[in-house]
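COMPLEX REQUEST
Ligand: adenosine-5'-triphosphate
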Amino acid sequence: MSNYHIKHLEEYFQVYRKSVRNPEGFWEEVAEEHFHWRKKWDTVLEWDFSKPEISWFKGAKLNITENCIDRHLRIRGDKTAILFEPNDPNEEAEHITYNQLHERVCKYANVLKDQGVKKGDRVVVYLPMIPDLAIAILACARIGAIHSVVFAGFSSTALSTRINDCGAKMVLTSDGSYRGKKIIDLKAIVDEALESCPDVKTVLVTKRTGGEVTMKEGRDIWVQPLLDKAYLDCVPEIMDAEDPLFILYTSGSTGRPKGMVHTTGGYMVYTAYSFKNVFQYREEDVYWCTADIGWITGHSYIVYGPLANGATTVMFEGVPSYPDFGRFWEVVQKHKVTQFYTAPTAIRALAKQNLDFVTDYDLSSLKVLGTVGEPINEEAWHWYNDHVGDKKCPIVDTWWQTETGGILISPIPFSTPTKPTYATLPLPGIQPALMDETGEEIKGNQVDGRLCIKFPWPSIARTIWGNHQRYKDTYFSAFEGKYFTGDGALRDEVGYYRITGRVDDVIIVSGHNLGTAPIEDAINEHPAVAESAIVGFPHDIKGNALYGYIILKETGEDRNRDNLKKEINELITDHIGPIAKLDKIQFTEGLPKTRSGKIMRRILRKIASKDTANLGDTSTLLNPEVVESIIKESL
Ligand code: ATP
Ligand code: MG
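STATUS: Structure written out below.
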């Protein structure tokens, strides 16, 4: 069915037009033809962005795990559903078929039930990237419990805050986890977190590393013995389309993380639909997304989207640098991966290494490459295109957010001609708008503004857990009747979108709006520069001026700093104009990043304006030590 699997540009435009002319009709058709519903909906869509209230497929009944597992058993029961690649390359990969996944999810679901978990209960999942993580969240969905995955690299404070915020009584974890050379004592972190979580009554522990753990009597239980005894089938709980499926906290790049609530029916339809199109997924493909399931990318495009399409999805426990920087490519070669989806931060890290790490492997199985999470700079885009994709694989630069549930703007490979640094065109059903400061929509092409979405799509988050007011204030108050993304974007002469960065980070210099991404892009073109981040700081005359934090490549370390500064500013003048020249440049060893690899510009902004007393929420920071050293260097 063409609506569901777009194959050329003309078809994209046809489908897109149809989706805008009649969104309800469009999504109804997709929902009807490609999913298993226990009962159909009474209405396709009801919405009011001023409240805000949104419901898709109201009155419909389903269980998402029936769609992700059960309905595949008859036709692809022996097909690999999850392909688990362990941290240690010498440990054997595990192929979990759809039949096996069904049994393991059912058993896990029965264990949860035996432990008293009921529909609507929140279960916090703090597990590393091992099969039990995917199985545990599917088990929650099987019985109607709301899962909230907390990335297993977060500290005990970040964990306890999230447990208390969503009011979970149960935590699922493991004894430990492997990350490259390191072994992390996850259970000890949980123990510490639970000192401030009095409501948690049960902790189920998976054995992974075999490390020593303390098991608290009456609270902590090894899960394997329970699974061994559990019954191998579990009748799915029949859910309403608008029942919550999960809560997931945003990355915290811009402030205190928000617990986004996603519901069942619309989320399933949209993630499955976008997965199929954006990755041009075919039955025999082996798809690999390197994200952690602790992020929305992992929820939508490792678990739900791929499994709803009956795909084989790779789950990787390790890191790109272990045992060496060739690991990703070794895994691609070994499993003949066809679609590879990663983040710009990983690409930049790999591009810094010797090219042999890539060329040593046979990557000819690859068909489509993807990126997500941050704007991808031009240099990284070309490296990915030339060396990983051998100029044959379209790159899908996918723009979306935890709040959007699925990809909203992206090329459709083999249909949309790609353009470096551009996320290109909205997917069917997505109606973007660029707004100016006065709240007017900016029409036409070759314009830039604040990116909003005018019409609901099925996987939009419905609220922030326990704080509907914050949901309204954050997303629906800046521009009346529109969802505000918080990002800035430009639309080029053919209507392609480029995300230029967070609106919070847009710097106004002498009355000009400057996005961070295009300036960083120009800087990164300098052969001595590895990475950069720019922020604004107050300036007497211009109002604001630009401050650049720049990491040099090893080869650039002994270059004359003053010459470098001059060359960098020349590049900016060439690419953007003298208005964007940097007033201050600080060469630094590292940049503060979130655990998902994004630069935390709000911290750099504070340092640049010498306001370091209160740096805000830094609980999701990967490298707090870098902050100290940047502050010292800046003095
Ligand atoms: P918080 O909302 O807590 O500040 P966050 O916005 O980093 O955290 P996510 O939902 O993980 O949390 O990230 C979404 C954001 O990531 C987008 O709003 C956008 O700024 C950025 N982003 C994601 N994909 C792309 C992309 N392809 N190009 C440019 N930016 C992207
Ligand atoms: Mg955000």
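REMARKS: The chain has a mean pLDDT of 95. DSSP finds 20 helices and 31 strands in the chain.
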